[in-house]
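Protocol step 6 of 9: fold each sequence in the batch and record its structure tokens directly after the sequence line. For illustration, a two-sequence batch is reproduced in full.

Sequence one:
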Amino acid sequence: MSTTTEMRYVNAVTQALRDCMEQDLTVVVMGEDVANAGGSFKATRGLLDTFGPGRVIDTPISESAIASAAVGMALTGMKPVVEIMFMDFITLSMDALVNQAAKARYMFGGQGSVPMVLRTPHGGGLSAGPQHSQCLEAWLAHIPGLKVVCPSCPQDAYSLLRAAIADPDPVMFIEHKAMYANKGEVDTAKTARIGEARIARAGRDVTLVTYGATVNVCLKAADQLGKEGMEAEVVDLRSIQPWDKAAVLESLSRTHRAVVVHEAVQAFGVGAEIVATIADEGFDELDAPVLRVAAPFMPAPFASSLEKGYAVTVDRVMDAVRKTLA
């Protein structure tokens, strides 16, 4: 019997939650409007009917309380999956995440773990404004003890969420709100490992290192560049912390050029860490400087016309590739 079906990104998230909850009674879902309303983006739709209010829990509008409760539940044997409605609101839960969840294993000599998952959507493209469009994953990746993943397709949304829920440590699971309607094949028997990148497109001339929504931007850019005789390899990190340094350096050893692409602002971002690592450990492979394509250092605009100018686009990626190949 086939385990593969086409589904939307958001439905892949729902299916992963459903499958984990059916197989493990300690898995609970909690957050604002996740039960009766099915979540702001309907990722938890239908779970209440199946699993009841004891395992699908509507919470007060307090991100700090939600995250703190999840840490306590995880420390005492549960596996909470928390939804924070927008990544921007994660700022209100940082004490629980940074000072408690991330440090429990270290502070208790490995005797206590925090097997919780925090799901949250980031990114722009919906004219949601500066308080609902931020990409703050670099904050989280900076904290020892937190794992950070960001799937770019329905298959990884399913497989990586299952891996995150099975992980004994806190995992920040970052989705992109503009990708929820994207369709793709999902094999529910396929597994994924946190910290392992994938080659989304093979190429010989330049390595594009990216994750999340900008994977699709890079794939489109690579297709256009191919018509001009330039073959770009697209490395989908999938996991930001830990990140697959070996896969990036291996790709670089073949292409000898690299461009790092992400939607978050460029300054002090994930791309800076990747570029620094390439400079430290892959410098002898480089035939040109490593370039970055990211958002400018400013809040995300509300007006759609301004947001288009703020966003990482296919043209910006192609310009960077042409520059590094010049």
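Sequence two, same batch, same settings:
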Amino acid sequence: MIKTRIQSISKAILDEIIAIRQHIHQHPELSFHEFETSNYIESILKKWNINFESGVAGTGIIGVIRPNKDVAKCIALRADLDALPIQEENDVDYKSKNKGVMHACGHDVHTAMLLGALKIINENKNELNCMVKFIFQPGEEKLPGGASLMINEGVLKNPKVDEIYALHVFPELEVGKIGLKPGMYMASCDEIYMTITGKGGHGAMPHQNIDPILTSAHIITSLQQIVSRNCSPIIPSVLSFGKIEGLGATNIIPNEVKLEGTFRTMNEEWREKAHHLIKKQATFIAQGFGATVDVNIIKGYPFLENDIPLTNASKTKLKSHFGQENLIDLPIRMTGEDFAFFAQKIPATFIRVGVRNENKGIIYPVHHSKFNIDENAIKIGMETLLTIVYNE
């Protein structure tokens, strides 16, 4: 399928796909509870006569589009389904109808882009030189990650998938721009939970207490040195704490303090070592204050590494379609993404689609209550997937 056909067909169905996106946006569902979203996608696939299998990893949907000829290669296209526990503050007709739940990370957009591409692929399947497996994945936002569950259920088999692609909205880029990063791109992400237990009492008599507030402050400050004094400067690494809970008062020292944080890096050997150092250092500091600490580190998604030959080949295809001026080389990011589970198994490319439009006030980042997109990005996303598929 040549460039002009991809552009014209994508434009022709854009209003239909925007309506699909807006419907999904109005009815967001949290991770692993995407029941109505899944049912809605199934109804669309049935209407378009696209065969599928539902109930994969709970609410996931998969299927394969084949040309009427023998082909050996199979590529996969993945979109995620879940929303976030955020109250939407946008004033739009398609604002979320589910209180406290919002598609603030663009998964409604990813799903719409993939559905639009599938409609076109299915109607032009005899021009394919490969099989196209589609994956609508639940639970990207919540451990253990829907990608890992779908892999365990055999989503990369029958037929065996040779390579996989995913799109993600990127509000840092203007609409019309595409971003890629060959090689290491996103960090592993682990969750840290600590409970520091001391002995509470009156704030005026701290000598009679074991102060978990003071202990936790020293732990937080000291742990920052784990990265700066133990990690090679060539290995990106972040340790941050985002929640401190110590339910005392101006004159009350509590019995315990709870801390929650995240550790992210791009090296598995250092990742394991850092876990050990965090636990060891926190324990010793607590002991020094006469307190105790329970440290629970939940290992999350692995780092995401884009296959270099595959990503460079994608850049060549997309440059031919969109022009060099619209392709952006991305820096590494310390955010995480469960698409990394797929990338650990087979060659993968994670592509960013610009959605920003400052003239329309579309400037907010993902996970923000006012996140939105310039819906022209949906056409760009469809064209991106089609350009990759039809240049095999």
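Proceed to step 7 once all outputs are recorded. Observation for sequence two: Residues 268-288 form the longest helix (21 residues).
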